Amino acid sequence: MKKTMKLKFIIAAISALFSTALFAQWQPVGNAEYTWGPFHVYTVGLYSETGSYEKNERPLMFSIKYEKPVEGKNFAIALTKEMESQNLSKDDTTAWLKKMQEIFPDFSPNDILNFVALADKGYFVLNDTVLDHEFDQKFTQAFIDVWLSDKSSFIKLQPQLLGKEKPAHDSKEFQHQPASEPFDEENTMPELPPNYDFKQDTKG
């Protein structure tokens, strides 16, 4: 009961900030596939109110549609490593990692993780559920920079993500659908991106 009431409060608070109309006015800018070897791990899409992107524009929304099972804790590690490459404070990135690992579940195929970026804060929404934490402006900018900065590891994805090249998928594919198969720990695919050093976890 308390969790239900808390979720309703969070949704009401976000609705007050955005207005109901804002939720209905997201326009696709572009999207791009992230692959690891032969595997299509996820597709990330960028949305704005206008359907175009200008630097420092807010609000923005990033939508990550998973094609393979991805462990939430490892996804958080990978995002944090990308943020650390931006020369941010270690205290900040350590705190962000802890919080993301607390709120991220394991992701299954067809799950959609949205990040809504406002001028001074940001929120994650998984499918139709608001995840229970409000991130500050510094995190919000760091998350945007993971995908869009000149130093991003995803620089090759940016032309599609910014709508300068033909999108990899129709934006309708980012509408929430139930997972087509359950998360299977024995069939977990590589978790994330170019900067993640898999060798560091190897013992011996």
TrEMBL record:
Chalcone isomerase domain ranges (all copies): 39-163
Alphabetized Pfam families for the sequence: Chalcone_3
UniProt keyword Metal-binding, yes or no: no
Entry annotated with the keyword Signal: yes
Sequence ranges of Basic and acidic residues compositional bias: 164-175
Domain of life: Bacteria
Signal peptide annotation: 1-24
UniProt keyword list: Signal
InterPro entries in alphabetical order: Chalcone_isomerase (IPR016087)
Annotated spans, Disordered: 164-204
Stated name of the protein: Chalcone isomerase domain-containing protein
Taxonomic lineage: Bacteria, Pseudomonadati, Pseudomonadota, Gammaproteobacteria, Pasteurellales
